[in-house]
Amino acid sequence: MILDVVSIFPDYLAPLDLSLIGKARRDGLLDLRVHDLRDFAHDRHHSVDDTPYGGGAGMVMKPQPWAEALAHVVASGADGARPRLVVPGPGGMPFTQAMARELAEEPWLAFACGRYEGIDERVYEHAAQDLGLEVSVVSLGDYVLNGGEVAVLAMVEAVARLLPGVIGNAESLVEESHEDGLLEYPVYTKPASWESGSGVTRAVPPVLLSGDHGAIASWRHQQRLERTAARRPDLLHPSSALTVDDLPVSL
Ligand code: 6GU
Description:
- The chain is an alpha/beta fold.
- It has two domains: about 1-170, SPOUT methyltransferase, trefoil knot domain (Alpha/beta knot), CATH 3.40.1280; about 180-240, Trp Operon Repressor, Chain A (Orthogonal Bundle).
- Helices cover about 30% and strands about 15% of the residues.
- It contains seven helices and nine strands.
- The chain has helices at about 20-25, 65-75, 95-105, 120-130, 150-160, 215-230, 235, and strands spanning about 1-5, 30-35, 50, 60, 85-95, 110, 135-140, 195, 200-205.
- Strand 5, helix 3 (about 95-105) and strand 6 form a beta-alpha-beta unit.
- The longest helix is centred in the C-terminal third of the chain and has 19 residues, at about 215-230.
- The structure holds 6-chloroguanine.
- 6-chloroguanine binds next to strand 5 and strand 7.
- One of its GO terms (cellular component) is cytosol.
- Specifically methylates guanosine-37 in various tRNAs.
- One of its GO terms (biological process) is tRNA N1-guanine methylation.
- Belongs to the RNA methyltransferase TrmD family.
- Homodimer.
């Protein structure tokens, strides 16, 4: 898979040299290229942002450096090849395990990391209409980060670990939280009885030492249900999600 990341802080992506993702790059499974947006800003200060039309707080990323950066990325591919463009942002659609699986099917992804109040809206139109890119604005969750870089670290890790050969034990991919709609059961390892140092001794649930595989499977399933109900009731009752009709004001 080819991955291009455009950012004004390329150093933020340095962790992608480490661990399983770093190994996947060295093994040739991932061709990850990080580009500095300022290389495509040609004024004396390499400026990438300016004040928002209409007023308001903060700065907006200028269209020209983004257009050149995206042209550079597109030109690096074979004739007619186009990356899918992912723009991280708190106003995007939720990034889920299902979306990670979907992105893992793509041969080529490009990530555009915005900072400040965001990227001039015309960049999205240009990417879709002039460059022919499928553009997806994607959010990690309902909170605000300073920029897309940390989100890209999370998304690249979630996608890359699904690629064949990146994770040695492919079985560990199926029994995971969010693969089947329930959270994972609690896990334990040796010793069977552990004194924590505060005078309390804690035992591993006896069923796990019983050798009764049927009993272990039902205990684990029950634990998954209880955990999901306690921590993520929305996963068990997806219809409880708000709709536009629940908004206090109609627009
Ligand atoms: Cl993907 N980007 C930014 N800047 N903030 C976020 C986010 C993404 N997801 C949640 N907050």
